[in-house]
Design brief:
Elements: H1 7-16, H2 23-29, H3 35-44, E1 49-55, E2 62-68, H4 73-85
Antiparallel strand pairs: 1-2
């Protein structure tokens, strides 16, 4: 029996291992058509994925990387309030 790993599961595994990925890296490495949509889907599933801006020390260009973090108490509280309100 073979098991198939979804693209989303591969991205989650990479993020859980501490890898920070740009949208272009996600699209190229995992053959994802729309990295923003995939990340949005992961967030809706409860993964605390953050987008951090970085400045390259090489050329001074700004770029953004996704990383998996820990949700703050205020974010968890807001989610629980939304659930309680039936939103």
């Amino acid at each position: 029996m073979t098991t198939t790993t979804t693209k989303a599961a591969k991205v989650v595994a990479a993020l859980e291992n501490g890898t920070e990925l740009t949208a272009k890296q996600i699209e190229a490495r995992y053959n994802v058509k729309n990295a923003r949509a995939l990340i949005s889907s992961l967030r809706m599933q409860g993964y605390p994925v953050y987008l951090n801006k970085r400045v390259s020390t090489f050329d001074g260009q700004t770029y953004s990387k996704y990383r998996l973090g820990t949700a703050s108490r205020s974010v968890v509280a807001a989610g629980n309030r939304a659930i309680a309100a039936g939103i």
